[in-house]
User: Fold this.
Amino acid sequence: MSGTSHSTFSSDRIYPVAPAELFSAFSQAERKRRWFVEGEGWQVDEFAADFRPGGSERSSFRFGGGASYSNDTTYLDIVPDKRIVFAYVMATEGKRFSASLATIEFVAEGKGTRLVYSEQAAYLDSDNTDAQTADRKAGWAELLEALARHLDETAG
Assistant:
């Protein structure tokens, strides 16, 4: 295996809810679990969150009975309804394959909120940065779509 490779990417999406409503989908553990780790075909082995600066989040999950994946997050900075900064490490079957620093910003826009997601990723023991970045971006696109569905389901 080779060394560590790096990438930076960002994406944004507008949601038809106020910043406080969008922020609560991240800050309330029971809400975040529903859109972040649950879903058709997914088995959640563990989900625990302590949403505060210095707090952590741990999730372990698998798709279709396949390999176990884990996500270990540390919250670095939180400004309610404005910003979340966190670092996270992902692993499969206990072997770490990436470490990232990410920022989520909530920007009021019209009657909704623009969510801006930015990530600096280090892919461990890898030389295929383009493929891994494409996979990571696709994964976050799926998560942001799951968040949109969650907001639709809980609107009212």
The domain at 5-154 is CATH 3.30.530.20 (Alpha-D-Glucose-1,6-Bisphosphate; Chain A, domain 4).
